[in-house]
Structures are given as C-alpha cells and as structure tokens.
Amino acid sequence: MRFDETYSGNVFIKSHPNYEESKAVLYGMPMDWTVSYRPGSRFGPARIREVSIGLEEYSPYLDRELDDVKFFDAGDIPLPFGNAQKSLDEIEKFVKRLLADGKIPVGMGGEHLVSWPVMKAVYEKYNDLAIIHFDAHTDLRTEYEGEPLSHSTPIRKIAEHIGPNNVYSFGIRSGMKEEFDWARENGMHISKFEVLEPLKEVLPTLAGRNVYVTIDIDVLDPAHAPGTGTVDCGGITSKELLASIHAIAGSDVNVVGFDLVEVAPIYDPSEMTANTASKLLREMILGWVK
C-alpha cells in the first residue's frame, strides 16, 4: 500500500493528507473469517469512515478539535478472503511498517482476532507494554471448536506472549469458567461487569508505562451498540465508555497504539453503532495522540 498520497476512498473526517507529517495512522482490518456467531464486521471500517462526516470536529469533553492532531487515513489493509493466517501476517507486516516510521497505529476492525498481530508487533517495539482491554467477553480461549485462530482467543494469545500480569480487562461479563480461572491463577486483571471505577484504580499503577488499548464495541450494552457480531446484555453505557476514554487521556500512561473492533453495520439499520464508534474514535484520537 502506498503512503505518499491520501487514500482514494472515503476517509475519516479531517484526516491529514500527508503520511509523513502525521503522528498517527488510521487503518482498517476488514476480516471476519473466524467469528463464532454473526459475520459482518469486515464492513465496519468503511462504514465508520462514511458516517464520520456527521461528526463535529470539536470535542467539548477534551476542548480539542481534529485539526489539532495530524492523523493519516491509510484505508483498509487488503486481506485475502477466508485465509486467517495470511490475513494476520499481512496486518502484522503493515503495522510493523507504521511503527518503524514512528507512527501510532490506530486500527478499526474487523473481528477481535485482528488485534493479536497488532499487539504482538507493538510489543516487539515496546517491551514494557501493558494491554488495556474493554470487552463483554474474556477472549481467553486457546481455541474454538478445535481452531486456535478464533476471535475468542486474542487476549489469551497476547497474555501468554507478554505475561498475564501485563493485561487488564474491563467490562467482562461473558466467558467460560476455565477462562476466568486461568486469569485468576495467572495474575491477570479482570474487572467483571464494570469499567470506569476499576479503570481509575488501575491507571495510577500504569503511570509511565507504554500501553496499547483495544476496545470491542460489544463492551457496550446492546441498547447502545446492537450492530455487532456477538451481542451480550448487561453492558455499560456509551457515556461510561466515553468517560473511560477520557480517564486514560487524563492519566500518565503513554498510549502507543489502539483499536476499536467488532462493529458489524448490517445488524443495526439505525446506524447507531457505527455513529457511536465514529465518535469514540474521535475521542480516542484527540485524547490519546499527544
């Protein structure tokens, strides 16, 4: 993929036209080859870009506007349909190039498995990395129906790669008993059901650390985000998630990459989910790209 000119398709509102001058790079990972319930998240990145045109450029939460941050929209990574391993390899190669150029990777999924090669690449550059993970699901399985490449496995993969004590999950309300047992026995932090208050307790302990943040849109209650592959009742509100994003922005952690995944527009004709995702990304970019 060329980075010497603006992506020719729809771009996220106010993305910068020049890759070299940009601090962060937004990109899509349109893959949903391993989902266990409803496919469709491969269409998430494109629709998030399209609805972003309805966003105001200014954040009243952060008193910043998108002109204050130079971020480049590189478009979607071309991924081979149905080939999970090759798709993950392509994502990792792409992100390594961004990191080599000193950029902050800002990903849009796609299913949650796409976060695994990104986190792995970021850890290769920042070996003190901590992961902050917002999700309805633990994602700590080693396989699903015998398949180790599954959207139910990325957090287990990164936890085993960087050490479970460096992974902090919030909003979790679904998973196998064995997953919760594994997390507890191996020193991984899991906050069940809640996000904001336990996050505020954890952030001071991560002061000065390099952090990667991954958000699965299904951490939100289906009333706030019905357009996702595996809906799960009992989630948090969009207001709580925004407050959590702002809590990270106001902390002393150093966000070196982040993503928002599992938006499946086809299941939400109201487009509430895509519009929410678009606003969340605006706040993440304005709050975390210093």
Automatic annotation (TrEMBL):
Pathway field: Amine and polyamine biosynthesis; putrescine biosynthesis via agmatine pathway; putrescine from agmatine: step 1/1
GO BP terms: putrescine biosynthetic process from arginine, via agmatine; spermidine biosynthetic process
Short name of one Pfam family: Arginase
Cofactor(s) of this protein: Mn(2+)
Binding site for Mn(2+): 112, 135, 137, 139, 216, 218
Domain of life, per lineage: Bacteria
Keyword Hydrolase found: yes
Reactions catalysed, as given in the entry: agmatine + H2O = urea + putrescine
Molecular function, one GO term: metal ion binding
Enzyme Commission numbers on file: 3.5.3.11
Cofactor comment text: Binds 2 manganese ions per subunit.
PROSITE patterns: ARGINASE_1, ARGINASE_2
Broad EC category: hydrolase
Keywords in alphabetical order: Hydrolase, Manganese, Metal-binding, Polyamine biosynthesis, Putrescine biosynthesis, Spermidine biosynthesis
SUPFAM superfamilies reported in the protein's UniProt record: Arginase/deacetylase
Summary of the function given for this chain in its UniProt record: Catalyzes the formation of putrescine from agmatine.
Protein family: Belongs to the arginase family. Agmatinase subfamily.
PANTHER family xref list: ARGINASE/AGMATINASE, GUANIDINO ACID HYDROLASE, MITOCHONDRIAL
Protein name: Agmatinase
